[in-house]
Amino acid sequence: MIPDDPARAAVVRSTPDFVGWPDDVARHYREVGWWAGRTLGEELRGWATRAPDHTAVVSGDDRWTYRELDLRADVVAARLEEAGIRHGDAVVLQLPNSAAFVAILFGLFRLGARPVIALAAHRRSEVEHFCRTTDATAYLCADVVDGFDHRGLADEMLETVPSLRTALVVGDPGHHRRLSTAPPAPGERIGVVERARPGDLALLLLSGGTTGQPKLGPRTHDDWSYSGRAMAEAIPYESTTVTLVSLAIGHNWPLTHGMLATFHAGGTLVLAETPDPVDCFELVERERVTDTGLVPGTALLWMDEAPWTRADLSSLRRVAIGGSKLDPELARQVEPVLGARLQQMFGMAEGLIGFVRDDDPEEMRIRSQGRPVSPGDEIRVVDADDHDVPEAEVGEMLARGPYTIRSYYRAPEHDRRSFTRDGYYRTGDLVRLLPGGFVEFAGRVKDQINRGGEKISAQEVESHVMAHPRIRQAAVVGVPDTVLGERCCVCVVPSGRAPGVNELRAFLTERGLAAYKMPDACEILDSLPVTALGKIDKAALSVAVGGRGDDE
Ligand code: J2J
Predict the structure, then answer these.
(1) What's the Rg (C-alpha) of the chain?
(2) Is the Cα dihedral 119, 269, 279, 344 positive or negative?
């Protein structure tokens, strides 16, 4: 293992781009050992030294030991440097679930370049926004994923984003440069001089957000690494743990609960392309999977399939369910149907993560979404005036701690709204804090739709819809859905002939918006209801359109 070097592990400084932890707080986090003082590149070296021959990652035909993953991260770092990427550069990384993703992520960490993690589903609108916000110098993608040719998007980005110097493609690069994660060729240079420090910005994660454009959460080596280690210790994971990740790897949840926590424990990470139960059940049997994470809608599909499968699911010890609220009735059925311990879980790309432990009281395991992962997590539940509400009453959850960000990246105007003066993140979630520190989710104050765990900013979709020439006013609301939790409904006041939902979807696709943000339904109205203060009354709208049909 790399020894701690307190002099090297300088505290996180605030930069013009984001606010770090105050010096005394950072010192405390380091003294108590939550922050280990190692970069993520160094962590991988440590894991590979500890158990070089243990399988680290399995994906498709790839099956790499920790030693192999470490070597590939080294050679990828050298290849990235060869391609002109430097320490401190932002690189927009958009890859599907694959071993290559893991090697490249750690290659970027070793180089000290900052991955900006896009979801595979993102399209021009989101990718361009990430490139511009971070002044990215490179866009790193696969060739074709789900029929979408990322090389074409790379062409567009190179044309329109001035900071972008290169596109690197995994697979068939077309006329772009290829990035291979293959082991080094004879004589090929391996490794780079690691200049990143543990307190440095390590990566930028997509925040659910409520604004016109998605925001990015700046995570340091120290804090992000700790979020995974804290989970590994609290669950607990062991070297015999085999974790299946079937959610899109660009989300914080699969990245931390799936990848980081597994690696910290020296376990094995198995990557599936999709959460389809038939494919995943085969993987569970083949790899003897012990742990996995699912959103409630997918858990429902798994539970429908489980009674019929021939696959042996007996290795499965725990199924974590989170990302959106799990209905208590469904929660009760998980253990009998899947034969694994239910682990309700909540979290956010901004930091705070919680889950129920295997031996927590039964009532809390069903009713609550869990308790925070670290003793350093601080939670307050407040009313509209920021006063603490009595225990078990509903209020907005504020969070602060050793892996919860203190600001967004290059978004000072949003920071004023999203963070308190004393550094708490306003989650926008309405919760009850129950005895024992358990959190029960009870709704939200943020203007966001949670569609099967994918977060959609109402404002982002509204601003695209408003660009339509025949729309005067638009409001996007969530309506209840048994599988997804919520569906996305756009309510419009047209000027002229009203567009239908299909026309709107085509319009939004043309504008480069990711498919998961497309409205499921479109309601045509003469006017939008307003509150006494004259704001659009989304609660009333949601109720009004909630019971109506799906499509045009
Ligand atoms: C209700 N709402 C939930 C739950 C998240 C672990 C797990 C999930 C995420 C995640 C994550 C919920 N019940 N069990 O990053 O590390 C809603 C809340 C929250 C928002 C964050 C992790 N679990 N939510 O979902 O950044 O509204 O992270 O603020 O995608 O999801 O979304 P996201």
Answers:
(1) 23
(2) negative
Q: How far apart are CA 106 and CA 477, in angstroms?
A: 39
Taking CA atoms only, the protein residue closest to ligand 1 atom 25 is 323
CA of 346 to the centre of ligand 1 (A): 5
Query: Which pTM was predicted?
Result: 0.95
**Ligand 1 pocket by Cβ (under 6 Å):** 208, 251-253, 256-257, 322-325, 345-349, 353, 369, 427, 429, 441, 444, 450, 455
Residue whose CA is at the smallest distance from ligand 1 atom 7:
347
**What's the Cα-to-Cα distance from 230 to each of 225, 226, 240, 403, rounded to whole Å?**
9, 6, 18, 10
| DSSP run (H or E) holding 82 | helix 66-82
Query: pLDDT 10s per residue in the chain (552 long)?
Result: 343 444 444 455 577 899 999 999 999 999 999 999 999 999 999 999 999 999 999 999 999 999 999 999 999 999 999 999 999 999 999 999 999 999 999 999 999 999 999 999 999 999 999 999 999 999 999 999 999 999 999 999 999 999 999 999 999 999 999 999 999 999 999 999 999 999 999 999 999 878 888 999 999 999 999 999 999 999 999 999 999 999 999 999 999 999 999 999 999 999 999 999 999 999 999 999 999 999 999 999 999 999 999 999 999 999 999 999 999 999 999 999 999 999 999 999 999 999 999 999 999 999 999 999 999 999 999 999 999 999 999 999 999 999 999 999 999 999 999 999 999 999 999 999 999 999 999 999 999 999 999 999 999 999 999 999 999 999 999 999 988 999 999 999 999 999 999 999 999 999 999 999 999 999 999 999 998 888 899 989 988 987 554 443
